[in-house]
């Protein structure tokens, strides 16, 4: 008889918006929360008995109730509350994994004192994943859809050439990518002090952007390493960083047939291609640490 | 024999990125340009004769060549160059319609003097559509995907109740929408001075956001009217505004079964729904002007 | 004071699934229904008074209640019921427009007599739009996302060449497109017999596909005309057809650098491009009829 | 100094269409091919030296050249050719992973003998992933976006109830899901005979659908187990199956306020919800085999 391997279940993509009022000044947290539970779940697969199954509908209710009861200090803190609850309150549940997307809003400037109007920032989506097995924690945070470009200071040459190689070497090209990044915290134990999750996120994003901008790049791999390395060097709370960086190709358009010179040094016209794209993926580790972020990044 | 009605053709979604270098400071324009031509095109439909057809591939080449030759001062100005070219250079082409999406980038702060690093802003997408028939111009600009929210100062009551009405009245609700807007300029003639397209866009967006934030709303229709009306009142170059505003419902979650009070006045928890959504669409006109923006807004 | 132009409102994207049981054999209708109402709606825009406003929530309830009360014989018939109801039951509402997407399902073959298992077909999405102003009807049906390809019998040559033309002529190319089509019925009056909507749809799709496949094409415009023309010729209930056909380019890959001949006559390897794409749009009319389908097709 | 962890690079989403001509009868293969290479790649990350880097552009060229040279008997066979080439032809490359999406086309029925017209089937997308490290092979195939529904024979009751549980038990509900599945072949060695990849895919899909349709379901987990188990039992070439099954909720609409009874036994009206959704994920293994398919399924 075929046997059951790794499994999990829960309610995905619970969209929760929490407004906090501080007089006329309102604050907003806008999350998309996914719950995955695992444990003693053989019977529900083999016979359909739900005796050990907390309904996914209940996990949804818990998300909304906790947003009211505990508030949302940060996505990470909220996920920790939820994960702890599921693992400690139901015996058959051994592990909980909470994934959260967070959407940022900024204030709309208005004439009066009121501050309850917001416009969605729309840049990157912030991410976190909390995993708890009853004894230790793993927190991996990250972001996706952050598009960046250097319009110069990127080269690509000196590569292997085989019979299928036709690419000319480039000494001044556009380097653009849509950053998907994840970073793992070394916090794993309730005895340790938790990081300041909000500050950590802002600082990681800042270092990532600066490393992208300030690296004179001979390959996207080199830029990726600098981005990860700078985070490890500046943020003691993080042991591992992984990036998946599509090389969003911008091809110099051949305008010679029309009697026009299109050269990078004068400012140039590019075709921004969709597919195919180079895809560069790597993990950067604090020396002595093991890689645990999976090879393939997934959104939620 | 069935006969040919309205028709047009061209190359859609030409992705063009133009870098301009001012020493170490680079500037960027990032557009998605779609060309549609119409005119004396019966034969290509009836018999397949391409004798009057400028290939869509040629219209693509023209977009890239013009970006180099003329630069891109603004999406509107670039579209005007292109439309004029197609109508005046090919006898069978009587009308050209150029549609452009523009993606905004902001600079990444860096240590040195270099300024060639950018992060995509990611908020709204700016739009324009230029139509030229050889004698007069129509310019309709706009935006899409600008998500805004008021966390209070919105009510909804006093409506019609029929046998299918179950909705309770609301005296303090979230009002959120994803703005799709278009506005038509009254510039139509080469003899008139052209508006300052860049300033106009920034000001329209500013007025739209302020009107959204500062209106105490009894209905989304009222908010929409205020948004359009404020643009007409402040921007003399614009005669018509149309909005398509989905009512992005945020439902107060019922937490009573869990012994929790979830009331707007204390700050509350909401479920952000996807579908269905209310959809409010209307045109606001300068007094004496005719509506010309189509009832259905389309993206490109 | 700025004045109100064309406006409408309603609940969009009501997802309704209706199961009908005929013993152990079940039938399914799976629709996405959008309601738009217009009429005497000045005050809700100017002052926020909702005295003439039937809530969009009520229009949603009506969709679900009607699915139970009247069933869903076809998307068109269902839309007619809804539109008539809104216009005749509320004095301030003068016009109703109902848009419907329909998703097709086919049965999964099973061992027993039961027939309640379905797999979504996933090919095109069927569309209809019903407009009623209290006296006359307009029904425009259609489809989107139907991708078709001819791997030969397509040429493109004899076109205009200007200074920006570099495209070589083609005597054997792939012709592929993703059909978006709309067709307008000449039924407009309750006194006329209604068409058999289900049969009409199947026949229109069949003729469209056969015309695409059997036309030896000198231009995509010619193929488009044949597709529309064949519908007009075979379906007396239809007076107007409009297509928006992206030319989904398949470029012959240059394999000469690798010593390989890649010629269409031997079967060839193509790069399927995303953007840019040619876009061909046209209306085909029964002789003597006026075009009424808007130039820009919209999804819902 | 931070150190480099797991990494890979290559060209993603190479869209390749191969036409094969058998007289007037054409055949089509339509793939989206992604190449990922890894090996001795420290230097390109640390110093930017590309001395060991075969350009991603070259991997793209190789995909197109191989489609011509070797043809595409199946996605799996094509991936095996590519993976072997990269690992055996470049010393620094130790492992190649090829991911392929395949889009199915069916013929359009036409009058004549010609058979070169196709319509895209549009149902599921077929997937495969080939990994080769120079000595052993891993082939994981699968599909995504296959939406299925049982309109009865599904129950859900007898579950755990805690203080956040409000869900009523259900004795006759709709069960619908969008299948994402992967299955791992036990072929791993060039000495073994390869499976018939095309037959295998068709049979796996058939068994999966039948198991979904014929299982009287007490939980989606039970249905999932039956789907995987049936594949393991019928297909000796497969040792492991993993599914990610969103529970696409169809909620019975409450029509009581309108005096209507909406009961499943009479055929009923449902609201098809988008988010949140239950998400059920599990692996089913041939007894004695180890799980190797990652917990999170990724598209390409």
Automatic annotation (TrEMBL), chains A, B, C, D:
5-hydroxyisourate binds at residues 56-57, 156, 173, 221, 247. This is Uricase. Keywords: Oxidoreductase, Purine metabolism. One of its GO terms (molecular function) is urate oxidase activity. Pathway: Purine metabolism; urate degradation; (S)-allantoin from urate: step 1/3. Catalyzes the oxidation of uric acid to 5-hydroxyisourate, which is further processed to form (S)-allantoin. O2 binds at residues 56, 247. The keyword Oxidoreductase applies.
């Amino acid at each position: 008889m075929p046997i059951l391997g790794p499994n999990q279940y829960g309610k995905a993509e619970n969209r929760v918006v929490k407004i906090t009022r501080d007089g006329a000044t309102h604050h907003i947290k806008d999350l998309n929360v996914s719950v995955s539970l695992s444990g003693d779940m053989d019977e529900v697969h083999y016979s359909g008995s739900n005796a050990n199954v907390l309904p996914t509908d209940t996990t949804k209710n818990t998300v909304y109730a906790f947003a009211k009861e505990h508030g949302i200090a940060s996505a990470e803190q909220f996920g920790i509350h939820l994960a702890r609850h599921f693992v400690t309150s139901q015996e058959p549940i051994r592990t909980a994994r909470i994934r959260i997307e967070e959407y940022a809003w900024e204030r709309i400037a208005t004439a009066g004192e009121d501050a309850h109007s917001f416009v969605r920032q729309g840049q990157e989506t912030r991410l976190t994943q909390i995993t708890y097995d009853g004894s230790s924690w793993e927190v991996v945070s990250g972001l996706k859809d952050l598009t960046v470009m250097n319009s110069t200071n990127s080269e690509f040459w000196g590569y292997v050439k085989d019979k299928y190689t036709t690419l000319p070497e480039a000494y001044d090209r556009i380097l653009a990518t849509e950053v998907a990044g994840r970073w793992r915290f070394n916090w794993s134990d309730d005895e340790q002090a938790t990081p300041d999750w909000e500050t950590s996120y802002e600082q990681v994003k800042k270092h990532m952007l600066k490393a992208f901008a300030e690296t004179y790049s001979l390959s996207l791999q080199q830029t990726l390493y600098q981005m990860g390395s700078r985070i490890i060097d500046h943020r003691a709370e993080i042991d591992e960083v992984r990036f998946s960086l599509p090389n969003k190709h911008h091809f110099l358009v051949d305008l010679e047939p029309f009697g026009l010179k299109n050269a990078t040094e004068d400012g140039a016209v590019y075709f921004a291609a969709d597919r195919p794209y180079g895809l560069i993926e790597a993990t950067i580790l604090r020396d002595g640490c093991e890689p645990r972020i999976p090879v393939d990044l997934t959104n939620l």
